[in-house]
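Long-time lurker. I teach an intro course on protein structure, and each term I like to show students one example going from raw sequence to a predicted 3D structure in token notation. This year I'd like something fresh instead of my usual example. Would anyone be willing to generate the tokens for the chain below so I can use it in lecture? Attribution to the forum is fine with me.
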Amino acid sequence: MVDIKSNLDDYKKKIDILNDNMRESTEENKLEYLKDFLADMPSEESRLYELVVTMIVQKVPDVFKLLTGLFNKTKNNKDPESEKISFTCFYAINIYYRRMKDTSRLKDFIEENRREYTNDKHPIMYHLLSIYYKTLGGHYNMIKSLEYAKEASKRIEGHAGVLHNLAESIINVVNDGYADPNDINKMIIEAEEAVDEAIRLDPDFPKFYSTKAQIMAAKGDYQDAYNLIKTAIDKEDSSAADYPIRISGYIEVLFNIRIKELSARTNEKMKEIESQMNGFRNQSIELLGLFAAVISFTVASIQLVLNQPFNQGAMLLVVFSGCLLITYSSLSIILHGKTYWQRSLLVFLIGLLLTLLPIIYMNGGF
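-- Reply from a regular --
Happy to contribute to a lecture. Here you go:
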């Protein structure tokens, strides 16, 4: 990481010199200065290459015009140096379109020129195409993006940008509902491991923290997610031309995380209400059963008493009254639980006494 920072600082100085040289130059001379700069780029498969190309897009005035001019001038030349320069222009124009959120022109440019650069000759193309499909969105493109991201991570090891893109591709598939439910936990773990390694390799790149925030939200760690978005915003270069676009992207991620959190809370509340409703339904069924028993019991009691002599009928009424009080105390316990347990107990004891009283009387207890 120290070597990358040191080398990146060197390239920053070179870009400053490039800008100074081009300031008063003709268009033709500007293209020559840019061509000389791109001829001295680091290896395509290094993280430094991606960072330097991104820095060119951010720091060089009229960069799009210069890149497209140099690309058109070199893309048909087959000598190694011209192909190296044309591919770097191709790579940089892709970054420019993505950072400007110009998806339609990005698609046209990729589809028109991608066959000029084979994956075997330029392994970084797996990485570039993964990001391209991810930018397009949709089920097919997200799955395709993940396939290319996995292939890039196999071919290019220890590349923070490749690892981050793998993590982002995985979490996009999960968040968009394209993952097999049985694989989601495993995929989230894989994404977190990849982005953690990317952050370890390049702790100063802002977007890595935004992707980590989405992974934390997928795990339900929303406060960590919010803190990570704040870190991403703090690390952005406010002097960059695309700074407002980058910040708007983080705000969109923040909004999606907030929606995810509110949805999770709503689902928890709905489950709680559903559980309470199930309990209420079961309680209602029990109450209906008890009321039916009371009604049947009362009707049967009246019919039975009417067919008995006075003394026996009176005794039966006392027994039935005691049974009703016992039933009432049972209903009270079901309805109120332990809230009125003393009252329920008193009613139960009175009912029990009334039920036993005729038996005691008939056995000569009085």
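Some talking points for your students: The chain has a mean pLDDT of 87. The chain has two domains: 2-268, 279-362.
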